[in-house]
Amino acid sequence: xxxxxxxxxxxxxxxxxxxxxxxxxxxxxxxxxxxxxxxxxxxxxxxxxxxxxxxxxxxxxxxxxxxxxxxxxxxxxxxxxxxxxxxxxxxxxxxxxxxxxxxxxxxxxxxxxxxxxxxxxxxxxxxxxxxxxxxxxxxxxxxxxxxxxxxxxxxxxxxxxxxxxxxxxxxxxxxxxxxxxxxxxxxxx
Length: 189
Known about the structure:
Radius of gyration: 29 Å
Oligomer: single chain
Helix content: 10-25%
Strand order of the largest sheet: 5-6-7-8
Strand content: 15-25%
Shape: elongated
């Protein structure tokens, strides 16, 4: 085996080629083995389909509500009356058990005013998860002392803006992320 003259690179040998080819095959093989493991961590198509839903609210008249299912949970969509809105606006923030809006469309520290709980620019629309914040029961609509929602499991009472007013529930009903795509269509999620 001779040495190359100074400045000349030695010719690659057959052994060098085998090392490079073996390494390349090993990298491709590792990627083929790892891909199914990485890919199985992605959500399945059924979960992706439920990430957002569009709801047509054209048929929901004033004073009416509908309940839709999103991510396995009920979502209350209420077209509030003028009296319900004025009742909600008349409540002083100091009277609220939970002063935070719990609205995913606003900063986390937004106050629980009626404006911060209802749809921006469409204060008659109230969109909330229909899950009691105490133990996860489904409250009944337009019942209870405040004309909002009443949880029959343990007696939590929410007002016409979905704010907890009485009972063991610690927080207001959660307002999910949503937007109006048209005047009569809401995209939730």
